[in-house]
Amino acid sequence: MKTWTFRLGALSGLAGLVWLVRSRLDGSTASALGRNATVAGIGARSGGRWAATQARKTFASAERREALDAELQMKTTEDVVASLGNLKGAMMKVGQMASYLDLGLPENVRLTLTQLQSDAPPMAPELAATMIEEELGRPPEQVFAEWDPVPIASASIGQVHRAMTHDGQAVAVKVQYPGVGDAIEADLRTNDALFAGLRVLFPGIDTSTITDELRDRLSEELDYELEARNQQYFADHFDGHPYINVPSVLPEYSTRRVMTSELVVGAKFDEVLGWPQAQRDQIAETLFRFTFGSIYRLAAFNGDPHPGNYLFHEEGRITFLDFGLVKHFTPDDTELFESLIVNMVIEPDFAQFRNDIEEAGLLAKDAPFSNELIGEYFSYFYDFVLRDEEFTFDDDYSAAGVKAIFETGGDHGELKKVLNVPASFVVLQRINLGVMALFGQLNATQNWRRIASEVWPFVDAEPSTDMGRAIEEWGRTTGRRPEYQGL
Q: Could you tell me the pTM of the whole model?
């Protein structure tokens, strides 16, 4: 009962967030309600069409299924703005963040949030081709030696097509939906209510830092040129890595609304869940090394840890996709992260840990809480590296993460009411609500303390696993470890 109490509490907070986001208030309750009804109507109509089409396809021939799919295609910019700008847009981006609560919520809620990420109908081939011609100067059939008009994947604000360059290289071409950028930018600029629901989830704290940071990060996702630079930054660093692969970008085929990179194929996350446990443990180790190694070795974090952004290969190798939301950290940021780990994990000192979070602006200096209570609360987020022993992530641990962040009862609840979230921590919360949730689904088991000690440059321990030894050899030949690789 206690578990469901906090889950339902989180759900009620999400309900408030979703209502406030979808209402997109513009100055009066009446206009807000009217606009909300309009958006809800669009959602109901498009959702109803999608559901009806799926049902009809079950009993249709292959040719008829193609025809039914074609009926759902967005054929004009107005279709895109109606289906994605009003129905999704920035609301969809906030919903994606909320979806990382999935392991702490009932299945029907989890599926609803997941649909915010993947149920957009595709652009009609002619519309996608128009976008390519506007951005690259010629129709796709001329820009590329081969062009597949049927998208292979949908991204949050675009879709991905296969193509072949004239020199024979297979590529993935991400094409932004026309008009969706303007719709999201308008939401981010003019609708303060878009983020007002955060106050429901974080009662009593100043959410301005959170909203400013989210606005900056979400706005950056619209710029594929920035994404291309971020992706190439990671690709250059991990070039030749035995377990981590990031496709290189082809700048001559990339613009602000089109991005082309190497085409990679691999298994999806749902397939990985059926692999033997030893392989799932390898996958989790690679995810761990990529996530925390990027923070401490590159001073950057790819803040969209969604399984749809990964392609999985044998022996733990992963290809990482979608670098639209990347947070770059300053030396002061990484120095703070190091100090927090030292004072919580390596040489525990709750008084000094408290001083760290006060200096960072996470906790007010006059907060009436003991060092022990503060250390007890924050130790959860370091639990898997506190001891030199194997630790298994499971669904209960992931659900406890939701509780640790969102439950408002008890002494910890009172503490959370006065916590702030500095800009450098906003995107990092996606580790707790995203990466750790994936580890829970993998039921991943490792001695994470030893692996972390290899990753942390201020410890730089000897390799403790076969993967660690292979990475050490790669680093020795490339010079990428143990030197700090910050910007």
A: 0.79
